[in-house]
TrEMBL record:
InterPro entries the record matches: EcsC
One Pfam family cited in the UniProt record for this chain: EcsC
Highest rank taxon of the organism: Bacteria
Name under which the protein is recorded: EcsC family protein
Native species: Romboutsia maritimum
Length: 240
């Protein structure tokens, strides 16, 4: 167990260094290309994404429909992360099948994949929070989940900002207002869209949409799982 924790602690240190790196010239240029690409996407695409992410964000903050399990207690870090691996495989399979199904259906079903995939991600993170022993009935934990999504699917500049907030979480939550309506969902949805736009656009194309949806959705769950693992390792007392 000690050896596992030592390795996890070393990996966490390296991950933190990576999160703190400033955007490279290539990353800054990629952001400019992404902005230009956004301008050629169908207006319907933007409308669907904006509404879906806004509604999902509010559902996470207000709702309890994703709360399925109480926090896991009295587990070692290795036991928790073994559970995370199993949970990732389950959700990855679900996301891949969903992506293949909607990708094969053309433009309209391809657009439907976007809010559905976001729902799968949120449900996955609720389960991950419980695995690491955190209670999402506390709305501050739901904000942490939204931060994990931003950390996984945002531009490097925004990642730097979000990571600083998460690294100093105990101090940050003291500044949270009583009214959770003040959450900045507009910035969240724009960052999320910018990351996904290029990859998910190809899912809308006839002939290759099913393959792209199957492949991309699986990769997105993998990335989210890895990000969540490190994000919760930061809060584990045994790694302090």
């Amino acid at each position: 167990m000690d050896n596992y924790n030592d390795v996890a602690r070393h990996e966490l240190i390296n991950w933190k260094k990576h999160m703190k790196k400033k955007p490279s010239i290539i990353e800054a240029y990629s952001k400019e290309v992404q902005n230009k690409f956004n301008n050629i996407l169908p207006e319907k695409y933007h409308e669907v994404m904006t509404v879906a992410i806004k509604n999902m964000t509010k559902a996470v903050l207000y709702g309890s429909k994703y709360v399925t399990k109480p926090p896991y207690e009295y587990l070692t870090l290795r036991e928790r992360e073994d559970l995370l691996i199993d949970k990732t495989l389950i959700y990855k399979k679900t996301a891949k099948l969903e992506g293949a199904g909607t990708g094969a259906g053309g433009l309209l079903l391809g657009l439907a994949d976007l809010p559905i995939l976001l729902g799968i991600k949120v449900k996955f993170l609720y389960d991950v929070a419980a695995i690491y022993g955190f209670d999402v009935n506390d709305y501050r934990e739901r904000i942490y989940i939204l931060n994990i999504i931003q950390l996984a699917f945002s531009s490097k500049k925004h990642i730097n900002e979000v990571f600083n907030q998460m690294e100093n979480w105990n101090e940050y939550i003291k500044t949270l207002p009583e009214d959770i309506n003040e959450f900045d969902w507009r910035t969240f949805q724009q960052q999320y869209r910018d990351y996904l736009d290029l990859a998910k656009f190809f899912q809308l194309m006839p002939g290759i949409g099913a393959f792209v949806g199957f492949y991309i959705n699986g990769k997105l769950i993998d990335k989210l799982s890895e990000t969540a693992m490190f994000a919760y390792r930061m809060r584990m007392k045994e790694l302090e």
